Amino acid sequence: MTTITIDLVSDIACPWCAIGYARLQKALELLPDVQTELTWRAFELNPDPEAQPEPILPALCRKYNAPEAQIVESQKQMMTIASELGLNFEKMESRYTTNTFDAHRLVKWAHQFGKQTAMKQALFDAYFGEAESVQDPQVLLKCVEQAGLDQSKAQQVLQSDEYANEVRQEEQQYQQAGVSSVPAFIINQKYLISGAQEPDQLALALKQIVDENEG
Fold first, then answer.
1. Which domain CATH number covers 53?
2. Is 162's pLDDT higher than 80?
3. Rounded distance, CA 64 to CA 61, Å?
4. Quick check: 79 pLDDT over 80?
């Protein structure tokens, strides 16, 4: 059995990050002799905490300079991919742009309890499945409960600046390392796999890394 570390740089507001993690799970099913130690790392697509949330479709049209029909089609394609992977993206077209800084702080906090992935998945579900604001403290606390964590302790984190420096330092670290889009999978702190690759491709890339390290 070989163990590899995976640092998954991602944002809660990134649909391909949710898809990328689900595809990673499928890829690992193809590699029964490989164990992983996964750590979620922070990245913000909308880093301005003062920005007013706006409906996602016009925001994406402006960002990509694309007509709404094209954006709607790409959203539908993602919803289909997500559904096939068992992800809840039912209301992704109804969501608003959002800042995810506090959500990232809670993901950091969840690490000590071995609940990072559960927290991240609850946040993905709230944002893409329910079109809820993951800036809203009440939504964040609901996600905390879904992840099996203590709401009162999470509320103390939210009311403080705990983990703020850790999130900022992490974002800066990966930007300086050249990560400009997410998801980004960093294997054994050495190899970068960019994007939400298909499970077969991802499994092949991971197998090559394992073989290279064992060779």
1. 3.40.30.10
2. yes
3. 6
4. yes
